[in-house]
Amino acid sequence: MNRDLLACRPHPSKKISDAIAGDPTIVNLTVGEPGYGPPAVVLDGVARRLGVRTEDPAPSYDRYTHSRGLPALRQAIAGYYHRRYGLEVDPDAEVLVTNGGAGALWLTVFTLTNPGDEVVIPDPCYMLFEPIVRSLGRRPVRIATRAERRFRLDPDDFAAQLTDRTRLLMINSPENPTGTVYDRETLEALYGLVAERGIHLMHDEVFDSLLFEGQHLPARLLEPETRHTVMVNSFSKRFGMTGWRLGWMLAAPDVVEAATKALTFQCLACGTLVQEGAAAGLADTSTDPLVARHCEELQAKSLRFVEKLTAIDGFDLPAGPPRGGFYAFADVRRLYRRLVDRGEAPGPESEVVARYLLQHAKVGVVPGNGFGDAGEGFVRISYAAPEAHLDEAVTRLRAMRETLGA
Ligand SMILES: Cc1ncc(COP(=O)(O)O)c(C=O)c1O
């Protein structure tokens, strides 16, 4: 078997969420799945298409699409970048439809690097980046970020790690798990270093619509034509369609061409009906205010949750409240010390605390060290869950903390 694959730890969040999924006594705050589902235009469009089946015994959705993706969907994606940022994107040359953002991440690494190449990843960062790089025999170079810098990768630290084997920098903004958002200055400095070297900056922007303040800045906006950036995006978070498995990559034509070849070898094409539905949703501008409303609701929920959480002794947010996305990344080192003082066996701080919360408060969270070594001492808590679940979690955590004494 593939040694590099076998050497990777299982996906930490999926492992926990799968393990506790069937237990109704646990408040599961491990996963980031929004409560809202796809916009009506998506669902109605698909239902209508299925409805014509009797009239058309061989509808086009029974067949493969072009490996690059359904033309109408690529057009809708290009239209999205145009209406949001004024960007001119060639839907035939610069867009590839993928199996979720996750599919686009894998294709980016596979297409842009060779075995042994170095790929730079901030630490902590989204948990799929490193195992994708490792399982493909590439070398992840993790660079610790600091809460004082709001967990943004410091361009000086990046410059210091560049070698002649560096091929790719992977960032995520708004970021899972830290909730950080890259500011223009940092993004420009990182992009400048990448462009100077002729390598690539991959910006995972799957939370682009769930930013709480200001304007989302895609790295692609920093260059006049697509050369050194690869944007990765998805329908999962924007439209609450995680199960539909649909995303995209926006990159230079030669990168898209090579990645299309890879996608063809891997799975031939993405699901046709799913692409039809997503195209209808993204092309319809009435979904923009709907998504904006979901974002406002999420922000309000985030603020309420974070206020109650940080009022509990031992749950700190040193980087401040999340700026976007679904997660609070709480520093639980004080809680860990308290637990050990009270007789809990020492171990990796994140894991000891996450296990304790699961066993004693019946609240499921993800240990921060699953996002990189620098996530040690933190836990990721998803506030995408319904408000009632969040309230129940807070009640349980508060009660748990009280039993530990002052
Ligand atoms: C930062 C980030 N990128 C990519 C993904 C993958 O998303 P998708 O469901 O589109 O594959 C996720 C999912 O949680 C994510 O948080």
CATH class of the largest domain reads: Alpha Beta
CATH superfamily of the largest domain: Type I PLP-dependent aspartate aminotransferase-like (Major domain)
Bound molecules: pyridoxal-5'-phosphate
Number of helices, counting only DSSP H or I runs of 4 residues or more: 14
Q: What is the string of SSEs from the N terminus onward?
A: HHEHHEHEHEHEHEEEHHHEHHEEEH
Number of domains: 2
Name the poorly predicted regions: none
> Which strand-content bin applies to the residues?
5-15%
Cα end-to-end separation = 52 Å
Q: Architecture of the largest domain, according to CATH?
A: 3-Layer(aba) Sandwich
| Radius of gyration from CA coordinates | 21 Å
CATH topology of the largest domain: Aspartate Aminotransferase, domain 2
Q: Sheet bearing the most strands, described?
A: 7 strands, mixed
Structural class: alpha/beta
Can you give the helix content as a percent range? Answer: 40-55%
Describe the fold and architecture.
By secondary structure, the chain is α/β, with parallel strands linked by helices. It has two domains: 3-38 and 288-400, Aspartate Aminotransferase, domain 1 (Alpha-Beta Complex); 40-285, 3-Layer(aba) Sandwich (Aspartate Aminotransferase, domain 2), CATH 3.40.640.10. Helix content is 42%, strand content 13%. The chain contains 14 helices and twelve strands. The protein has helices spanning 3-7, 12-20, 40-51, 71-85, 100-112, 129-135, 155-161, 184-197, 253-267, 272-283, 287-310, 333-341, 349-361, 387-403; strands at 27-28, 95-98, 118-123, 139-144, 166-172, 200-204, 229-234, 247-250, 327-331, 363-364, 366-367, 378-382. The chain has a seven-stranded mixed sheet, sandwiched between helices. The chain has a three-stranded antiparallel sheet with strand order 9-12-11. The chain is globular, with a radius of gyration of 21 Å. It binds pyridoxal-5'-phosphate. Pyridoxal-5'-phosphate binds at residues 32, 100-102, 126, 172, 176, 204, 206, 234, 236, 242, 247.
